[in-house]
Amino acid sequence: MAMNLAGGDNDELAETHEINVTPFIDVILVLLIIFMVAAPLATVDVPVALPTASAQRVPRPDTAIFLTLKADRSLALGDAPVTQAGLRAALDAASAGDRSRRVFLRGDRTVPYEAVMQALDALRDAGYLKVALVGLEAPAAP
């Protein structure tokens, strides 16, 4: 507690009710500097330009199952449109109930990544865990 030592008419020492905020401000400034230094280190902000695939072409099986994700986020199994609710039944009919068969997922390039992940989740929920992503071949380098 602080006391007023100024000489006045009163012989009694009066208490002052002020809080010294200087140490508090010092602590806040130190914490601010720590967070300003640590915050950029905590974020992952790496720009990535993904390359095209240049892997060897794998021969396509005779009876491949193609699931297409169109630009409007609708699904098509082969050439027939299918809803997400009816995907399991349509896949079971196309694969004759063999859930170990590979499903080839084709997606329009304008479809957001979230829609591709939803399609992969729907395939996993249907029990089809072998999924291949279909893309264009990269042009040969000169």
Description of the structure:
- This protein is an alpha/beta fold.
- The chain has helices spanning 22-42, 87-95, 113-126, and strands at 2-3, 15-16, 65-69, 75-77, 80-82, 103-107, 131-134.
- The strands form two sheets. The protein has a five-stranded mixed sheet with strand order 5-4-3-6-7, with helices on one face. A two-stranded antiparallel ribbon has the order 1-2.
- α3 (113-126) links the parallel β6 (103-107) and β7 (131-134).
- The chain is elongated and about 100 Å long.
Search tags:
two-stranded antiparallel ribbon; 5-stranded mixed β-sheet; elongated; 142 residues; 31% helix; alpha/beta; 17% strand
Task: Quickly describe the structure.
With 142 residues, the protein is α/β, with parallel strands linked by helices. It contains 3 helices and 7 strands, in the order ββαβββαβαβ.
